[in-house]
Amino acid sequence: MTLDAKRTVRVSKTLSRVLRHDPASVGVTLDEAGWVAVDTLLAALARHGTRISRAELDHVVETNNKRRFAYSEDGSAIRASQGHSVAVDLGLAATVPPPALYHGTTGRNLDAIYREGLRPMARQDVHLSADTETAVRVGSRHGRPVLLLVDAAAMAAAGHEFRVSANGVWLTDRVPAEFLSLLA
Predict the structure, then answer these.
(1) Fold of the CATH domain 5-80
(2) Which BP terms from GO are recorded (predicted)?
(3) pLDDT (tens digit, 9 = 90+) per residue, 59-92?
(4) Deepest in the core among 39, 138, 145, 172, taking most CB within 10 A?
(5) Is 26 helix (H, G, I), strand (E, B) or coil?
(6) Residues in a beta bridge with 71
(7) CATH assignment of 100-182, given 3.40.50.300, 2.60.40.10, 3.20.170.30, 3.40.718.10?
């Protein structure tokens, strides 16, 4: 099935809102790992005026360029890969990070970042990228991007834990300012 780009974005945004931030808005409950049965989700969305077919859901999960969503092994449940503001435990093991990771932001955030480091804000974790292109794209969502280099090797050596989500986003609870430097 192929959806037009507008419908794909609309479905993806709806799924992000429900699976990452507000499952109660459609009357579903995520389990402790963030999963909800696909049939339960689709029925709840329909009851709240958003009809999404299983084929449309499959299309969004398979084609989302950020791989924001994942199915359980048997395909009966779905969850967001990361980015939750609701409490979930994705079950991600601590992983040794690459020496450098990146974070995209905007210049207006730099003063606070230099004072406080990177904090998760409304999310459970700080999100980091393994490549500069992704970090720049993330920073661009909020204005002119600024790119920060995270000395992940030094952070790991200092005892900070890293995890990597199913879609390749690196997660950590915070990044102290001393591990950051401005790239661009």
Answers:
(1) Arc Repressor Mutant, subunit A (1.10.10)
(2) tRNA splicing, via endonucleolytic cleavage and ligation
(3) 999 987 778 899 999 999 999 988 888 988 888 8
(4) 172
(5) helix
(6) 78
(7) 3.20.170.30
